[in-house]
Design a protein that fits this description.
By secondary structure, this protein is mainly α. It has helices spanning 3-10, 41-45, 65-73, 86-96, 111-125, 127-135, 155-170, 176-184, and strands at residues 32-34, 54-56, 60-62, 140-146, 149-152. The chain is globular, with a radius of gyration of 16 Å.
């Protein structure tokens, strides 16, 4: 494990972020919007519900970050959750009648450490996401809009993506080609999702 990987695993998550004014009309111009409805590929690809298969060495394979969260937050162990995301995942959980506990109540794993590392492994698994993230200088904001008004969500992800990108940009030993090749070694452990 290189020093960047260890840093991303150990770096603490700050859940509170100072709110700022965000104008959704300037998405892609003065900021990156991370959301499934973002108008730019990078913003959509970084969203927790975006389908982007990744392998986590400790917890296995998931279709999305949202899949991983729901896998740990439901009251039942159900391997099918790993292969679903977005509306299909939530419909499946509702159909099964599972209870979803708040992420703060997950105690059987260090959920925030697991999520930080999952974000890192997911980005490594997609070289185009890694390259676009490192090439961008725009601030990252995780929000959705309701009636045109931005609603901030997943503050931990916003902070973590910013720290990760800054660290990758400033570490001269980081080679995104090397990181992408390293991530491709996980392909043999990945599953196919429909």
């Amino acid at each position: 494990m290189n020093t960047n990987q260890q840093y991303f695993l150990d770096h603490p998550i700050e859940e509170k972020i100072t709110p700022i004014e965000i104008n959704p009309d300037f998405e892609g111009v003065d900021h990156i919007r991370v959301d499934a409805s973002a108008s730019h590929y990078l913003g959509r690809a970084l969203a927790p519900e975006y389908p982007s298969v990744f392998y986590h060495p400790k917890y296995g394979t998931f279709l999305s970050i949202q899949s991983m969260v729901m896998y740990f937050c439901t009251d039942q162990v159900d391997e099918e959750i790993r292969q679903l995301t977005s509306d299909k995942l939530m419909a499946y959980i509702n159909e099964k009648g599972y209870t979803v506990k708040p992420i703060s109540e997950v105690h059987d794993v260090d959920i925030f450490r697991a999520l930080r590392s999952a974000v890192f492994y997911r980005i490594l698994a997609k070289p185009e996401i890694l390259e676009q993230l490192v090439d961008s200088d725009l601030p990252i904001f995780v929000y959705s809009t309701r009636k045109g008004v931005p609603q901030r969500r997943h503050g931990w992800l916003e902070k973590h993506l910013t720290v990760m990108r800054d660290r990758l940009k400033t570490d001269k030993s980081t080679d995104t080609v090397f990181l992408s090749k390293e991530a491709s070694s996980y392909k043999t452990r990945r599953f196919q999702c429909n």
